[in-house]
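Recap slide: SDR family NAD(P)-dependent oxidoreductase, sequence and predicted structure.
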Amino acid sequence: MTKEFAGKHVVVMGGSRGIGRSIALGFAAGGAAVSICARTPGPLEATRREIEAHGVTAHAAALDLAQAEAIQAYVPQAVAALGGLDILVNNASGFGHSDDEAGWEASLGIDMMAVVRGSHAAIPHLKPGSSIVNISSISGLRASARSAPYGAVKAAVMHYTASQAKMLARQGIRVNCVAPGSIEFPGGTWEERRTSNPDLYNSTLATIPFGRMGRPEEIAQVVLFLASDKASWVTGQSIVVDGGQLVGP
């Protein structure tokens, strides 16, 4: 991979594992200085060391992304540690599935409001040519009896992405969204369901024409494209990356 992100400064909200980790490592491999945040210190520090191994500046902070004050404090710290900010990736998720107060609080507090708060904190530091990429889900594109709050909020993230793009265009800031399908990785939801709920795992697998779950790096590559100069005329878009899961086998 060429160092197309050399001299760039990237913040990945929710960057310690899975998709967020792959995004952070992709930018680091491209030469960018990267800051990540998440709740759990152990995986966060492990990923920070992986970023640093690419020979770039690596910064990490443990925080609860449901807390507005934590985000407001973190973003300026990350900007100071990196020496600037060119790209923001809003990846964090509370995975609120149950249609009750707890499920809605988890989804709204992190999947939605962390995107809003992270963007608000970052925008004053972004210059013309900068980019925001939000991570949604194909769950936002179809009804679900199993995870109504998660799907509804992910749909809102796609709508907000388009609104952000319109609001920030005059400042020269592009905003796009990636909507992944089912992604499997160590310690992730689908790895756990492979054994805890094999019926759900296998029925979901059967909807994917390629016959396998996606990999985090396959999402990361699309995020990197949208944040790169190759996508300089792309804004306000939500790109589905699901191996054809929405269209079926």
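The two ends are 32 Å apart (CA to CA).
The mean pLDDT is 96.
(End of recap.)
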